[in-house]
Every structure is written in structure tokens, then in C-alpha cells.
Specification:
Nucleotidyltransferase, domain 5; five-stranded mixed β-sheet; 2 domains; about 290 residues; alpha/beta
Length: about 290
């Protein structure tokens, strides 16, 4: 089984999606069915988020037996999510997420980056079901990604491969949360758009929408020529909220960068996962870890 496959005997999994504004949980079966789905808002548990996550997990687990826990969380993190330092959760720095959940829930826990988890879900349940090499992206509050090449999710030395949001797209541009200048996330994410324009992405003007799509397309096109893939699937409130124009502009810009014979047919499309994608991805993190 490749990284993006699902074994028919994959056990029921408690899936957790830990984000900047909310945490979702559900029981996920191998066929992609979600049961007992529930969520909490981070802002309601600012002082002790982990205690709230454990309580949420136990509430969902009470709805049916599970054998393993899978977690998608923002990074960076150490390999296997032993320690996580999400840029968007300031209270967690080198936080021992995997051990804490394992001890609290009494089950084996597997942790990976949320955008990397989404890449697994896109291949198993989404638009990339028939692809062996592709980039999966989220353009939302932040910008993240995961790369599947030859059927395998690329890990890298520390397990953080795929952070396309930290490709440089504007030399000496805006300060990114990672500390560098001009990263894609610092120029095209939801928080960047609000910082640059004083407006939420939903209220962005036409020039901002075109600029955002252009920068995303340039980043994807550059990466496609480096890593030899021809499909990119994008989710997230900014990209999807900007609609058809975003994908039209992004494709045009990507193809202007991907001019080599093997990358010139690059295509950027919408994710097919919908709101279930992050939880499906978290379950796949667990099943991948057990395989």
C-alpha cells in the first residue's frame, strides 16, 4: 500500500484537526465515513487548550470504539509530532503533543502537519485519487502544503517537507511569521491580505485577488519544475472564496513558470474534499503510522 492508500481493514480512528481558530474531532472509518463529529473554538480555551482537546476527544470516543488516534496540526514540529511549535498557536512551543495525548487517552497517537495530512486525504478520497505525483495546498488563514511523489508523501529530514508557504515570492517582501521576508504565506495568506490591505479576504478588491492568485501560481509553477509533478489541488477559504478567477490567474502564472517539457502541462484545480478533508487526513496519518 502506498502512503495515500487505505487498507480495507483499517481500524476506526479518532481524528483530530488542530487549527488556529478551532479544533475538530470525529471517529473516521476506512470508507471515509465520519461519525460523532464535534468541535471547540480555540479562543474559548486560550489558557488551557490541551485540556479542552482531551475533553473533546473523550466525548467523541464515547460514541464508539476506536483503536488509534490521528492528529493533523500546524507546524513546524519534530519528526512524528513528538514536539509541535505551531506558528499560529503561540502558547505551544516544543509542546509534547503526541505523548500528552497518548497518556491522556490510553491509545497510540500519530501526529503530522495538517496540510500534509490533507495531501494524504486528497489522494485517498479526493481529486488526486488517480494521481501518483501531486501537490496539495491550503490557501486560507495560512498557506501550507504536502507533496506526494511516486505515491509517497515526502517527509524530509525532520518530517516537515511540503511547507510551500515558505517559498520566497517577493524578495525583501513582508515579514513572515517564520522570520523571513517575502514568503508566500506573508504575501498571499488570509492574515497577510488583512495586514496589507486592512480588509478581510472576503472584502479584498480585484487587484488583491489577482495578486494573490498570481503569487500562488508562480510558487506552484516553480516547484513543479523542480519536483516533476503536473497536478496541484488547492483548498482553503481564500482560494475557494476568490472563485474561478483565482484558478484562472493561478494557472496562467504557474504555466508561465513551468516551461520545461515535463512541467508545461501543469494544472491547478480545486480540492474535492470539502470540510471533511482535514479529519480524513488526520485519520490517514494514523493509518499510515500503523502500516
Amino acid at each position: 500500500m502506498t502512503d495515500v492508500g487505505v487498507a480495507r481493514n483499517a481500524p476506526p480512528c479518532l481524528a483530530l484537526d488542530i487549527g488556529a481558530t478551532k479544533v475538530e474531532a470525529a471517529i473516521v472509518d476506512a470508507d471515509g465515513t465520519l461519525r460523532a463529529r464535534a468541535r471547540i473554538n480555540d479562543a474559548d480555551h486560550h489558557d488551557d487548550l490541551i485540556t479542552a482537546i482531551v475533553a473533546l476527544s473523550r466525548r467523541v470516543m464515547a460514541e464508539g470504539p476506536v483503536e488509534v488516534v490521528g492528529v493533523g496540526c500546524a507546524g513546524p514540529m519534530s519528526r512524528g509530532g513528538e514536539e509541535v511549535s505551531p506558528l499560529n498557536i503561540a502558547e505551544w512551543r516544543a509542546f509534547p503533543l503526541r505523548r500528552t495525548l497518548r497518556e491522556a487517552l490510553g491509545l497510540e497517537v500519530y501526529v503530522d502537519g495538517d496540510a500534509r495530512a490533507l495531501a494524504l486525504a486528497e489522494g485517498a478520497y479526493g481529486a488526486a485519487r488517480n494521481e501518483t505525483s501531486y501537490l496539495s495546498m491550503v490557501v486560507s488563514t495560512g498557506v501550507g502544503g504536502g507533496l506526494v511523489i511516486d505515491g509517497e508523501l515526502l517527509d524530509g529530514d525532520s518530517g516537515n517537507a511540503g511547507h510551500i508557504g515558505h517559498l520566497n515570492v517577493v524578495p525583501n517582501g513582508n515579514l513572515c511569521s517564520c522570520g523571513a521576508l517575502g514568503c508566500l504565506e506573508a504575501e498571499a495568506s488570509g492574515w497577510a491580505i488583512e495586514s496589507l490591505t486592512g480588509r478581510s479576504p472576503a472584502d479584498a478588491d480585484a487587484a488583491t485577488r489577482v495578486r494573490t492568485a498570481d503569487l500562488v501560481g508562480r510558487a506552484v509553477g516553480t516547484l513543479a519544475s523542480v519536483l516533476d509533478f503536473s497536478r496541484c489541488y488547492i483548498a482553503g477559504s481564500v482560494a475557494l472564496g476568490f472563485g474561478d478567477e483565482f484558478f484562472d490567474v493561478a494557472n496562467k502564472s504557474a504555466r508561465a513558470m513551468a516551461r520545461l517539457p515535463y512541467s508545461e502541462h501543469l494544472e491547478i484545480s480545486r480540492s474535492e474534499l470539502g470540510t471533511e478533508g482535514p479529519l480524513l487526513g488526520a485519520a490517514l496519518v494514523a493509518w499510515r503510522g500503523r502500516s
